[in-house]
Amino acid sequence: MSNISAAVTADRLPAEGRRVAARAADLRKTYGRGDTVVAALDGVSIEFAAGRFTAVMGASGSGKSTLMHCMAALDKPTSGEVYLGDVELSTLGDKELTRIRRDKVGFVFQAFNLVPTLTAQENIELPLSLAGRKPDPDWFDTVVDVTGLRDRLSHRPSELSGGQQQRVACARALLSQPDVVFADEPTGNLDSTSGAEVLSFLRDTVDSHGQTVVMVTHDPVAAAYTDRVVFLADGLVVDELHQPSAELVLEQLKRLTAAAGGSAAATGTMATGSEAGA
Ligand SMILES: Nc1ncnc2c1ncn2[C@@H]1O[C@H](COP(=O)(O)OP(=O)(O)O)[C@@H](O)[C@H]1O
Ligand SMILES: [Mg+2]
Description:
Elements: H1 3-12, E1 20-31, E2 38-49, E3 53-57, H2 64-71, E4 79-84, E5 87-88, H3 94-103, E6 105-108, H4 120-130, H5 137-146, H6 162-174, E7 180-184, H7 192-209, E8 213-216, H8 220-223, E9 228-233, E10 236-242, H9 246-259, H10 264-269
Parallel strand pairs: 3-8, 3-9, 6-7, 7-8
Antiparallel strand pairs: 1-2, 1-4, 4-5, 9-10
Helix pairs in contact: 4-6, 6-7
């Protein structure tokens, strides 16, 4: 094996010698039946290293959200395995799944999903309050500081900017100190300035607190905040990049779109590079 290929092989080791925070093995998810069956995931095997920030990219309909939902125990795959740490989700009953969703994973949605009648602080604490638990005061302070929400805690969502609302949603996801935070297009509803706020904050939780973050995005600029980009097409992992730059990601998206025959579906959502929080 040449030095170059050895280096490439080492670089492509998904876990990079780190603990694996979450992984999927031959994950399949089909919708419908007979002629109308859709394979949203068609055999995805992937590892997400602990303490790393990973982006998941791919054309609309390539299975990104389905993958996030299955990995976060919000949805059940048709077959295959999901491990959070050493725990395989299909072995768990409903009670244990509820506990995993509450304690082991955080989820950030594109549309923030805050409760409009609650203050920022109440929203951040809601999952723990529902579980009858008090947040660790030190960690609460850290999360509030890292999200820059100290002077906004008594505000309701309608009194906050989009970026602030998404930071509240991120703080909510982080408060239980989950093993993994999954974020599905967290900057998709934000302007580029607010998007950059949220991305810097996610980057900081990884760098300063060893958080593991997996984020779906369409935006090469957002992907450039991460350590690794995984590309999906038609329910399969088709490529990945390490230490991505926006230019490299854009190039890769163009290449994958061309390989897919430049279909309208693919070109509509990939390789535009203009969706920075649009
Ligand atoms: N609840 C559902 N019922 C039927 N088909 C679905 C459902 N959810 C997703 N799909 C289909 O699965 C495929 C992958 O969807 P999704 O994971 O949402 O893709 P992405 O997030 O990459 O846009 C698409 O073809 C989509 O239409
Ligand atoms: Mg989606």
